[in-house]
């Protein structure tokens, strides 16, 4: 028995969610009295750092090559390592690539799986993990009864903490199975923390009136070191890029702090954000439904309130 | 081309959520069900667009009870050629996938479509599982697709942007927003749907690998604290000292 954690490394860098799942896997292994092994595929800076977050062993496959993600060939490599080390639990991030892998891994391992878990397992009477369902209106507690288990973990489920020392990775080459898929291009906004990983998100909606007004939102985000997001009509009208769109049809996030300005708080919007730890709503309409889901609310004109908040943040950070 | 679209039934997002006294089952009383929007708006419509251009058939498949025929008829009304329902009550993702894979195995579909996830459980599992069961490539969260003979160029959503991939031969794809535009069935479609073939198949069964221990309601927010719009220093103080998020 062992726990295997698959750690993503886009462009050769370990993501924050990678350290999160390393911590998660290490804690699961500890509660079961077994070992946690970290697994990386393809060229990675400082792969051994994974050990600081708990895994006692790091396996680094094809460390000298840039490897493009492909769910089919990665599934074979990951399950081969799991079988070799008799790992019956595989942990990975519920990220774009993680979502493409989880179901495949479950089939190949003949495992029970939970995708998008947001708690550590409760092993007191089974192996029970929580997951948010029905647009955040309920939590389901799943008991994974199968011997083999695959869990993809929502971002920000744990705060990654360095608790140990780096380990020197065991490097090895493994041929990736040839498949019929190849990546030909990637377009990513540079220099920003991707939304699913952001701890602070500043989001704005139709109350902004037009794309030319986004400067105040970007200023607030910059002051907080936050990533920007938007409501669906904003993305649909091309005021903001599609990948900023959060909600039921956009992406689901759970940052520590979600600040929403000029967003009414429709259920489809809330579906993507109501797992945020703290929600601040700025809206001029005191009846806006979003206030019911908020921790802190400011009833006022965002064009006045947002710059004042930015100034107060700057003063505080000084 | 021969395309398969997997469709599922979900409660409308605005539905009230409650559970049966055993806390293990969703209380469906008074809930209105819909075809999962990603399946209907994006996967199904994109499949129809492809066959309209290249010729071929679009088959829809659902794993579920007879009460799901309502969404199957809707898919046929929107334009699917025929339908298959595997007769099974409340299947989990694994069982659903196993049944879809069993049907698809010898049918040589060129592309198998699913929605990127269902809007109730957000699992994103079925596409990946079917792909693994059939040992096919799987492209998740596709927001654009061009088919040229045996080659497909697919744009998929990833963190902070998109990735463009090329696939040769058959594959499984999950559809996200942008892949197509929603179509509303017209009267002619609705009439024709009544006579289109719907084959009901017996299920294959799978052992349960995961069970629902129970559903719980999330701890509610304790109520919003309103801050004077002229005192943003106070908000910053609360975020720092009370909420401890900055
Ligand atoms: C199937 C389906 C899926 C959907 N998916 C999503 C999704 O994923 N994400 C999403 O966001 N939406 C989604 N929607 C749309 C959703 O229902 C709402 O229509 C949308 O979220 C509204 O966006 P908004 O809050 O920006 O705009 P509005 O509802 O127009 O709200 C604008 C708000 O700004 C406030 N405002 C205006 N001016 C000011 C000012 N000067 N200062 C302060 N406040 C001001 C107003 O009081 C109002 O509350 C979906 C809808 C459907 C049917």
Would you kindly provide a written description of the structure presented here, covering whatever features stand out?
- The complex is a heterodimer of chains A (318) and B (246).
- Chain A contains seven helices and 15 strands.
- Chain A has two domains: 2-172, Rossmann fold (3-Layer(aba) Sandwich), CATH 3.40.50.620; 195-317, Rossmann fold, CATH 3.40.50.1220.
- By secondary structure, chain A is α/β, with parallel strands linked by helices.
- The N and C termini of chain A lie far apart (50 Å).
- In chain A, the strands form three sheets. Chain A has a seven-stranded parallel beta sheet, with helices on both faces. In chain A, strands 12-11-13-14-15 form a five-stranded parallel beta sheet.
- Chain A is globular, with a radius of gyration of 21 Å.
- In chain B, strand 8 and strand 9 (161-168) form a beta hairpin.
- Chain B has a single domain, classed as Rossmann fold, CATH 3.40.50.
- The relative contact order of chain B is 0.18.
- In chain B, 27% of the residues lie in helices and 30% in strands.
- Chain B has six helices and 13 strands.
- In chain B, helix 2 (69-78) crosses helix 5 and helix 3 packs across helix 4 (126-133).
- Chain B has 246 residues and is of the alpha/beta class.
- The chains are: A alpha/beta (318), B alpha/beta (246).
- At the A-B interface, helix 2, helix 3, strand 5, strand 6 and strand 7 of A face helix 3, helix 4, strand 7, strand 8 and strand 9 of B.
- Bound molecules: flavin-adenine dinucleotide (FAD).
- Residues 205-207, 231-234, 247-250, 262-264, 266, 268-269, 272, 283-285, 288, 301-303 of chain A line the site of flavin-adenine dinucleotide.
């Amino acid at each position: 028995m062992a726990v295997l954690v698959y750690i993503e490394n886009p462009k050769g860098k370990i993501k924050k969610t990678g350290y999160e799942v390393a911590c998660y896997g290490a804690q699961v292994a500890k509660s079961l009295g077994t070992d946690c092994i970290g697994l990386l595929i393809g060229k990675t800076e400082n792969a051994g750092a994974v050990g600081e977050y708990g895994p006692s062993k790091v396996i680094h496959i094809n460390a000298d090559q840039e490897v493009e993600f492909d769910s089919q060939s990665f599934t074979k490599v990951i399950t081969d390592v799991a079988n070799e080390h008799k790992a019956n639990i595989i942990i990975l991030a519920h990220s774009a690539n993680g979502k493409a892998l989880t179901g495949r891994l479950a089939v190949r391992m003949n495992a029970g799986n939970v995708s998008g878990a947001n708690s550590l397992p409760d092993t007191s009477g089974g192996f029970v993990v929580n997951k948010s369902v029905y647009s955040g209106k309920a939590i389901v507690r799943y008991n994974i009864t199968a011997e083999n288990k695959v869990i993809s973990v929502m971002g920000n489920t744990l705060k990654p903490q360095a608790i140990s020392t780096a380990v020197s990775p065991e490097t090895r080459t493994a041929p990736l199975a040839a498949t019929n898929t190849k990546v030909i291009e990637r377009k990513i906004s540079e220099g920003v923390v991707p939304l699913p990983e952001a701890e602070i998100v500043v989001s704005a909606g139709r109350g902004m009136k037009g794309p030319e007004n986004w400067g105040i939102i970007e200023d607030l985000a910059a002051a907080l070191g936050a990533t920007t997001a938007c409501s669906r009509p904003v993305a649909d009208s091309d005021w903001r890029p599609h990948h900023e769109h959060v909600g039921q049809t956009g992406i689901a996030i759970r940052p520590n702090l979600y600040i929403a300005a000029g967003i009414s708080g429709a259920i489809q919007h809330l579906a993507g954000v109501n797992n945020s730890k703290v929600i601040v709503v700025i809206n001029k309409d005191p009846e806006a439904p979003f206030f019911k889901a908020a921790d802190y609310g400011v009833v006022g004109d965002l064009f006045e309130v947002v710059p004042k908040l930015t100034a107060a943040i700057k003063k505080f950070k000084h | 081309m021969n395309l398969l679209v997997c469709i599922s039934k979900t409660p409308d997002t605005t539905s009230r959520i409650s559970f049966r006294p055993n806390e293990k089952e969703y209380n469906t009383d008074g809930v209105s069900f819909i075809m999962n929007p990603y399946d209907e708006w994006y996967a199904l419509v994109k499949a129809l667009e492809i066959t309209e251009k290249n010729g071929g058939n679009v088959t829809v498949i659902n794993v579920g009870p007879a009460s799901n025929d309502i969404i199957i008829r809707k898919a046929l009304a929107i334009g699917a050629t025929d339908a298959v329902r595997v007769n099974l009550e409340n299947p989990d993702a694994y069982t659903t996938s196993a049944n879809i894979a069993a049907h698809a195995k010898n049918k040589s579909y060129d592309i198998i479509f699913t929605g990127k996830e269902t809007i109730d459980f957000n699992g994103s599992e079925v596409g990946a599982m079917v792909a693994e069961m059939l040992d096919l490539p799987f492209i998740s969260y596709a927001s654009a697709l061009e088919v040229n003979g045996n080659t497909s160029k697919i744009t998929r959503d990833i963190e902070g942007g998109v990735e463009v991939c090329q696939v040769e031969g058959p594959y499984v794809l999950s559809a996200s927003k942008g892949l197509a535009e929603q179509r509303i069935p017209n009267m002619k479609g609705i009439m024709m749907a009544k006579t289109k073939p719907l084959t009901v198949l017996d299920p294959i069964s799978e052992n349960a690998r995961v069970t629902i221990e129970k559903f719980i309601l999330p701890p509610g927010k304790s109520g919003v604290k309103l801050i004077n719009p002229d005192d943003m220093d106070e908000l910053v103080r609360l975020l720092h000292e009370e909420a401890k998020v900055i």
